[in-house]
Amino acid sequence: MLSSLRVVFLGGVIAGLLFVSGSARAQGVDQVFVAKGPPSRGTIADAGMSRDKVQLDSGGAGRDIWVNEIVRILYKDEPAELNSGRNHAIQRNYSQGLAELKKLDGRRVDRALVMQDIEYYRALCQCKLAMSEGGDKAAASAAMYSFVSKAPQNYHFYDAAEVLGDLAMASGMWADAVKYYGPIAGAPWPDYQMRANNALGRANLGEKQFSEALAKFQAVIGADASTPEAIKQKNLAHVGRATCLAETGKAPEAINILQDLINKNDPQDAALFARTYNALGRCYVKQGKTKEAVLALLHTDVLFFNEADAHAEALYHLSKLWSEVNKSDRATAARATLKQRYAGSIWATLE
Length: 351
Description:
Layout: H1 4-27, E1 30-34, E2 40-42, E3 53-58, E4 61-66, E5 70-74, H2 80-90, H3 94-102, H4 112-131, H5 137-150, H6 157-170, H7 174-181, H8 190-206, H9 210-221, H10 228-247, H11 251-264, H12 270-286, H13 290-303, H14 308-324, H15 328-341
Antiparallel strand pairs: 1-2, 1-5, 3-4
């Protein structure tokens, strides 16, 4: 997946990025856009890029920019189709992005870093479409794995590893997901390490390895970090911990954790609330409280449906639970929406 921090930030500033993109090519310089402040301009040599930092040479003076600060890089003299495809991908318009990038098939691109960006964003669009609308997951995974294999020091490395893990999760290949998420835990930034442990915990949950999952979530909760992103990851870890408790016979304790999260956090955090209400529904199912489970999952279905994976999960469970409360028409509708909107999700493959 793309780094959640970078994607969220770009949603608000994409118009500005589109405006300046043309000027970068005209100036004949590379531009590194960061989350805060103006872009940095200069030249990036092939050897000046690693998975952790990018060295920008500006007027003979080198400057290191850490990858966790980078929003995107615009390369001098890059094809217009790359700029367009990248922008579509960042805005999650993956079909349009892939269409633009496919225009570059067969075209000669001499600069290695530009070719790597083309290959990364093409693979990203393929993976995202395979996980949502449906598509060849194996081909998408192969495309991203090829990018990582050929360019292991590209600044997209950690995002590519996350996308590979997410795709493995969407295919029910939990062990592969663990393998792909693993390198992210080696990143030099605490928030990346926490994000990796949360992802690894979810993969362990998929394998029903609850003690291993709980250990990963506890590691996040106990991390010595208090940045906004760290707090976000800790909240998500509490959701994972609650899920582990529910699955191991401690649903009442899990419900208390989840209700506390709901009471203390802003519902504008859709990712947190969608997962929290899904976990709450899971707890009520464990207790045999079907109506309460339905009400919890309806929060995700009605209020947080833009969180695709969480919405697919909620629809799957609702398609089962509606039948238990004699609402077969609503069960059919939930199943149909799941199949139509999230054909690439693992939830659409489960019976």
